[in-house]
């Protein structure tokens, strides 16, 4: 046995180290924005952007934009420079058979 291995084998066992607090070793630290996002990730959003709305309806973002320009999807809600769609409205719209925007707006007015 080499001298190094023999000295390790003959040395008394070290006392266990105290338990670590916080994240496991090797886990990167989350920045403030990432912690905030992680804190709200469990909350279901009320409205989504074009990419998410398209995904909910099973189509791509570019087709979603084409349908929006053509007036074939529900009207978006403007939030500053951003357009979003209510998830609940998208579900009702799909349940109604995806009518064009004008028919959908009439349907909403008459059916609440």
Word description of this protein:
This protein is mainly alpha-helical. The protein has a domain at 47-111. 47% of the residues lie in helices and 9% in strands. The protein has helices at 3-10, 32-40, 50-56, 61-69, 87-95, 101-111, and strands at residues 47-48, 77-79, 82-86. Strands 1-3-2 form a three-stranded antiparallel sheet. A hairpin with a 2-residue loop joins strand 2 and strand 3 (82-86). Helix 3 (50-56) crosses helix 4 (61-69). It starts with a helix and ends with a helix. 7% of the residues are buried.
Topology:
Elements: H1 3-10, H2 32-40, E1 47-48, H3 50-56, H4 61-69, E2 77-79, E3 82-86, H5 87-95, H6 101-111
Antiparallel strand pairs: 1-3, 2-3
Total strands? 3
Main sheet overview:
3 strands, antiparallel
Q: Proportion of β residues?
A: 5-15%
Helix content: 40-55%
Q: How much is the radius of gyration in Å?
A: 28 Å
Spans of at least 5 consecutive residues with low confidence: none
The helix/strand series, from N terminus to C terminus, equals HHEHHEEHH
End-to-end gap: 85 Å
Broad structural category: mainly alpha
Order of the strands making up the biggest sheet? 1-3-2
Mean pLDDT: 80
Which assembly state applies to the chains in this document? single chain
Number of helices: 6
Report the principal-axis shape. globular
